[in-house]
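Review this chain:
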Amino acid sequence: MAFGFTVIKKESSSNARLGRLVTPHGEVETPAFMAVGTAATVKAMTPRDLEETGCRIILGNTYHLYLRPGIDVIEKLGGLHRFMGWQGPILTDSGGFQVFSLGALRKITEEGVEFQSHLDGSSHRLTPEKVVDIQERLGSDIAMVLDECIPHPAEREYVRASTLRTMRWAERSLRARQENDMALFGIVQGGMFEDLRLECARELTALPFDGFAAGGLGVGEEEAALRAIGGYTASVLPEDRPRYLMGIGRPEDLVAAVAAGYDLFDCVLPTRNARNGALFTSAGKMNIRRAEHASDPRPADEACDCYGCRHFSRAYLRHLHLAGEILAAHLLTLHNLTFYQRLMARLRAAIREDKLQEITAAAREATSGIQEEEDAV
């Protein structure tokens, strides 16, 4: 099954659209949220658990898989899908953000990125060509080109030079592609400068990419800038190909991004927050560690149908988390991912029924108290 994307319906009151993504490992209705399985696993989840949440597509990471267990191992064992037991579509990130986060441990040149492993300090080099080859060997359904994730704030001269290099890398990535069944997405950079975003988008959309991503957001910029630049970038991308907003995951940001016309999202927020005892609920933020939950017999969210909310009390979840039991990470992660998938399902329904304004207002109210303050690294 070759890659394809179809816009099924556009919402009347916004730029939101309902779509269908077709990949060699199945179809995905969009807009969709991808659970993050960086190292060939979504932390604390089995593939069966992910399916129960409603997840249909997940994200893996080239940088981490390249370092451990190694691409040779995964390829020998039948590719990433078979290796991790997930039969649905997989999008793999190129590792650009991870290299960005290495700071002094990496050096960016025209050829690519030289870096020291965060695991053992060993030296490595990733080039646009090598990143494409790795993702083909992994058997990815959707691959991302190598780019530089530009820090914020950054001077215009630096942003422009970096963006131009990312554009040159994108062309090299296309020339390196061998596997036609694997979709390849270009990444629009440009920092907080609309004209640089437009220049990058024009150059990339003139090339035969299967989809496009907005990168370099969620790296410390103010919320207003995130919304403005994210929305602007969506507006200059083609309507007939999928748009992916990389690394953005607060529920209220997802709502705004769907309205702006994005189709795919990923973020570690729901899984990382779960491991720290922070739950997303229909009533807002919940810190399961709080003493008020010590003898509370209610489920974490009475509006949720996940396994944990159907079977366990807040008191029990709090006990598990404070006791450091592994089951806490499992049940809290299952809940948060279910919340995200239900949110996306409601947004898709709203687009289908031309009720996005009504639904998004309710979603914003329900999630307005949820912040990343519980999200410790």
